[in-house]
Structure formats: structure tokens, C-alpha cells
From TrEMBL, chain A:
Keywords: Cell membrane, Membrane, Transmembrane, Transmembrane helix, Transport. One of its GO terms (biological process) is transmembrane transport. Pfam families: BPD_transp_1 (PF00528). This is Transporter. It is a multi-pass membrane protein. The chain crosses the membrane at residues 72-94, 106-128, 140-159, 238-256. Its main location: membrane. Residues 68-259 form the ABC transmembrane type-1 domain. It is found in: Cell membrane. SUPFAM superfamilies: MetI-like. Belongs to the binding-protein-dependent transport system permease family.
From TrEMBL, chain B:
It is a multi-pass membrane protein. The chain crosses the membrane at residues 9-35, 71-92, 104-124, 144-164, 215-234, 265-285. Its main location: membrane. One of its GO terms (cellular component) is plasma membrane. InterPro entries: MetI-like, MetI-like_sf, UgpAE/MalFG_permease. Residues 67-281 form the ABC transmembrane type-1 domain. This is Transporter. It comes from Acrocarpospora macrocephala. Keywords: Cell membrane, Membrane, Transmembrane, Transmembrane helix, Transport. It comes from the Bacteria. It is found in: Cell membrane. One of its GO terms (biological process) is transmembrane transport. Pfam families: BPD_transp_1.
Length: 274, 293
């Protein structure tokens, strides 16, 4: 790249914004090891005394252990349900090109645009009607529905890449839909399945408003996202709050550090399909 | 991919369609019904009152404030976010020195949930928090304020958080899209002596214009609809109504003030705003040719 005035400006701008992104994260991490007094008096300095016990206090106050189990359970079941629904649908849509198939695709495309929040209150009513208000089970059923439009559209795209010749030869061998799906389509569309899994797991893990209003704040069912803000009180110990936040964000960052390329691909794929 | 038995295979889409109908389309449709009910909280029996709620909502000053705040929120956030993100994404795509660090940082807000973002900024923006500490540190004591508790800064602060999260994340998406363009086109423009700005806006931008439009629509919808969560965590719509948006009003009326009919009238208004905004963005960013892929 040739250095130019524009290039210099871009460099300055891009690093200023990076600094703006990093500063709150740095502040969070150093606060996690401080007392309130130190947070207030020396906000950006490294802790004078490293208060590791903030982490223990946060863990106990928000009952994060149980919350983590709940989050894992809900996200885990929801992703299985999502794939069980979306994979066969995508297979069918990838193999059909008629008015009906286009209408179904159109339905999902429209559904992708409307954020689930639009129907938050009627969804609460639905949970009550089904007798599942205040349970984890409702989220396990509901989250897949909110994930379906994008999952189906993405998987269909990946399954369209299966070479027709391969399908024909497998069909000549007498393979039915089940064999075709499990032996031909899913293996070839595996990068798509991986992307959808990562993308939706992250979405489920991070879901907040529906978990708060439907699953609720009872310690035995609440998720991490709901549990953590309960630390906030009139006289909040900001160090403990920061420590809890670090603990709650950590699983996602660990996952990201292990498979950052994959994750970046998955999340960008999710938005590229508009 | 034509296949002789293809029409029948569409049965496999039925489970997902049923699921989608029950949990997504159903509630969306129910919103219009609830908007016609007098319903004082989820434990009570609703009664039908027709269009009465609409009159109540439109006469309420809180609703007017919410319309204004939502309009300000999207009118500031989106026109700042999208061009800035495009420029940063373009820069990222030129693989400048340290671009790996940049892209990890830009990507970060996409990993952090809204409730964690709320908790991070609860600390950063508290009266004795990071922002005020920084201002005092550089001698701007008079600028320090209770950002979220001051009616003149609450909404602006929330918009700033939207931008903090949205710009970097959108930039990464633009970078990914730009990376898929044939490199020769941009190189050719540069050999022709086109400056950086001209290459960016007159060569690269038109080629991804449809994608810019898609992201602008998505960011618009997400900003408009999902602001309730952050507001609930940070300001509860206050002080007064200074940070009440339509999205938060839907939530607050249903859960704190137990007026479900009112809440869902606002919900319908929000939906109509969303649709109108989408058409506006589509018209503003119409691609010059249909083949601009």
C-alpha cells in the first residue's frame, strides 16, 4: 500500500476507534480486581492490591454456577431443535425450485427482517397459555423459532452447492431422502451447518429480554445474562459487578480464541445473507 | 436442482413452518388483537374495547416523547454508523499494519451480549466511573456529569453506546464483503491514479451498494426495535421520559405499568415505523443497476 494523506488519516481514525473499543474493556478488567474506593480514585491504574476475592463474591452473589448450567442447557437443547427443524427444510428447499418453494423461502426472508422483540408481549402470553411461563422449556422451544429464518436460508444456500450428478448417481443406487440427506447433503454442507451452529449458539447464549421476561429471575431457572444484572443494587460493589461480567463474558471469548477464524466466518455469513 | 419427485419433498419444510407459525407469526398477529383490549396485567381478564386504546396512546405526552426519542435515535445512529463502518471496513480490507488486532477489537462488541454491554457501561458511566475519571484526569472536571441520570445526556449516551457496539461490528462485515470483490478492479482504479477516497467511494462503494443497503436496514431495525434492553438496564427510560423510546415504552407499559392494550398499540406503531423506515432506506440506497452484485 502506498502511503498517502488519506492513508494516514484512515490509520489514525481506525486506531482511535479501536482505542475507544478497548478502553471500556480494559476498565472492566482492572475494575474487577479493585475495591470501589480504588475504582473511583484511580480508575485506569492497575490495582494496588489485587482483589481476587471479587470473583468469588460475584460467583456466589449471582449464583453464577447454576446460571451457567441453565444457559448451557437452554442453548444446547435449542440448537439441537433448531438443526432438526432447519436441516430437513433446507434440504427440501435446495432440491425444489417451484412457486411453493419460492413462497416458503420468501416467508423466511421476511421473518429474518422482523426482530423477535416486536412480538415480545404476545410471546409472554403464549408462554402462559402453554403453561410454560417461568420455565426453561419455553426458551428451548421458542429460541429455535426465532433462529429458523436465518438458519434455513443459510443452510439452503450451502445445500445448493451439492453437484446434481452426485444426487442422481446416489438416487440411481436407490438412496431415499434420508440416505441422501445424511450421506450426501449434510457432509457437503458441513461448513454451513458449523456456521449456523456457532452463530445461533452465540445468539441463544446472549439472549436477554425473552429470558428475563419469560424464564424470569428465579435462581433455579435463570440464565447467566439474567443472573448477572441482579448484582446491581443501590450500593453496588462495582468491583464485584465487573468481576461477574468478566466471568460471564469469558466463555464466549474462550470459544472465540479457540476458533476465531471459524467464528468470524460464521457471524459474517449470518449477516451477509440479507 | 430438478428432481422428479421434488414437489413431495417440500413436506420436509412443514415442521419448521409450523414452528415458525406458532412461535413467531402467531405472536406477531396476536399483537393486533391485544391492541384492541383493555387488559390490566397478565393475570386479569381482558375486555374488548376496539380502537379506544389508540386514542389514549396518541393523546399521551409520554408517547410523543417516545416517538421523538426513537426518531432521534435512528436518525443519528444509522447515518453515522453506516458510512463510518464502510470506511473502516474498507481500511481493514486493505490489510493495514496491525489489522489483525484491529479486526479482533472491532469484532468484540459482536460477542458481548446486550446485558453484559449494559453492565460494562453501568460501571464506565457511573458518576465516579471511568468516563468521569478520565475527564477529571485531563482537567475537564466541568464536563463530568452523571451521564445516565442527566436528562440532557441520557439519550445521547445511549446512542453513543449503540455506535460503540455497532460501528466496529458492521465494519468487519463490510470488510468481509469487500474481500469477496475481485481485487483487480480496485488495483486498476489505483493505477489509473484515482486517489484513496475516490477509489473507496466511486469504485468500491457502488459495487457493494446492495450490501450497504441490507446492513443499513438491519442496523436500523435492530436499533429501533431492541433499544428496550439497554434502556431497561441503564436508565429505565428516564430521567422523566428523556430516554424513553418506543421500544422501551412497549416493554414498560406491559410489565411495569400493566397496560397491555396501550403497550401493543405502541408495538403496532413500532412495526409500522420499522416498515416505513425500511422502504425509505431502500429508496435512498437504490442500486443504479440491478446487476450490481
Amino acid at each position: 500500500m502506498r502511503k498517502s494523506k488519506g492513508g494516514l488519516l484512515a490509520t489514525v481514525l481506525s486506531w482511535s476507534y479501536a482505542l475507544l473499543l478497548a478502553a471500556p474493556l480494559y476498565y472492566l478488567v482492572v475494575s474487577a480486581l479493585k475495591s470501589n474506593i480504588e475504582i473511583f480514585t484511580r480508575p485506569f491504574a492497575l490495582p494496588a492490591q489485587w482483589l481476587w476475592e471479587n470473583f468469588g463474591t460475584a460467583w456466589r452473589t449471582a449464583d453464577l454456577g447454576r446460571a451457567l448450567v441453565n444457559s448451557v442447557l437452554i442453548s444446547g437443547v435449542a440448537i439441537v431443535v433448531t438443526l432438526c427443524l432447519a436441516v430437513p427444510a433446507a434440504y427440501a428447499l435446495a432440491r425444489t425450485d417451484n412457486r411453493l418453494a419460492r413462497m416458503i423461502t420468501g416467508t423466511f426472508s421476511a421473518g429474518f427482517l422482523i426482530p423477535p422483540f416486536a412480538a415480545l408481549i404476545p410471546t409472554v402470553v403464549l408462554a402462559i397459555e402453554l403453561g410454560l411461563f417461568g420455565t426453561r422449556e419455553f426458551q428451548m422451544l421458542f429460541l429455535p423459532a426465532s433462529a429458523l429464518p436465518l438458519s434455513v436460508l443459510l443452510l439452503t444456500q450451502f445445500m445448493r452447492t451439492v453437484p446434481p450428478a452426485l444426487v442422481e448417481s446416489a438416487a440411481l443406487d436407490g438412496a431415499g431422502h434420508w440416505r441422501l440427506l445424511t450421506r450426501v447433503f449434510v457432509p457437503i454442507a458441513r461448513p454451513g451447518v458449523v456456521s449456523v451452529t456457532i452463530l445461533q449458539l452465540l445468539t441463544f447464549w446472549n439472549e436477554y429480554l425473552f429470558s428475563l421476561t419469560i424464564t424470569g429471575t428465579a435462581p433455579d431457572v435463570r440464565t447467566v445474562q439474567v443472573a448477572l444484572p441482579t448484582i446491581v443494587a443501590d450500593a453496588t460493589n462495582l468491583g464485584v459487578l465487573a468481576a461477574g461480567t468478566v466471568l460471564a463474558v469469558l466463555p464466549v471469548y474462550v470459544a472465540y480464541s479457540i476458533m476465531n477464524r471459524r467464528m468470524q466466518e460464521a457471524l459474517t455469513a449470518g449477516a451477509v445473507k440479507g | 436442482m430438478p428432481s422428479t419427485k421434488s414437489p413431495r419433498v417440500l413436506w420436509l419444510t412443514v415442521p419448521s413452518l409450523v414452528w415458525f407459525a406458532v412461535f413467531s407469526v402467531g405472536p406477531l398477529a396476536a399483537m393486533f388483537v391485544i391492541a384492541t383490549l383493555r387488559w390490566k396485567g397478565l393475570l386479569y381478564e381482558p375486555t374488548y374495547i376496539g380502537l379506544e386504546n389508540i386514542g389514549r396512546v396518541f393523546a399521551d405526552p409520554t408517547f410523543h416523547a417516545a416517538v421523538r426519542n426513537s426518531a432521534i435515535q435512528v436518525a443519528v445512529a444509522i447515518p453515522v454508523m453506516i458510512p463510518l463502518a464502510f470506511m473502516l471496513g474498507y481500511h481493514l480490507n486493505t490489510k493495514p499494519r496491525g489489522y489483525r488486532v484491529l479486526s479482533v477489537l472491532y469484532f468484540s462488541p459482536g460477542l458481548i451480549s446486550i446485558s453484559m454491554t449494559g453492565m460494562i457501561f453501568y460501571g464506565v458511566l457511573s458518576p465516579n466511573g471511568g468516563v468521569n475519571g478520565l475527564l477529571r484526569g485531563i482537567g475537564l472536571d466541568s464536563w463530568a456529569t452523571a451521564w445516565l441520570a442527566d436528562p440532557s445526556t441520557a439519550l445521547a449516551t445511549l446512542i453513543a453506546i449503540d455506535l460503540w457496539r455497532g460501528v466496529g461490528w458492521t465494519a468487519v462485515l463490510f470488510a468481509a464483503r469487500l474481500a469477496s470483490l475481485p481485487a483487480e478492479v480496485i488495483e486498476a482504479a489505483q493505477i489509473d491514479g484515482a486517489g484513496r477516497l475516490r477509489t473507496m467511494w466511486q469504485v468500491a462503494f457502488p459495487m457493494v451498494k446492495d450490501y450497504v443497503r441490507t446492513l443499513a436496514m438491519l442496523q436500523f431495525l435492530w436499533t429501533l426495535f431492541t433499544s428496550a434492553a439497554l434502556i431497561l438496564l441503564l436508565t429505565k427510560g428516564g430521567p422523566g421520559t428523556s430516554s424513553t423510546t418506543l421500544s422501551y415504552l412497549v416493554y414498560a407499559k406491559a410489565f411495569s405499568q400493566r397496560d397491555l392494550g396501550y403497550s401493543q398499540v405502541v408495538g403496532v406503531v413500532l412495526l409500522l415505523f420499522g416498515i416505513a423506515g425500511m422502504f425509505l432506506i431502500r429508496a435512498l440506497l437504490r442500486s443504479p443497476e440491478e446487476d450490481s452484485r
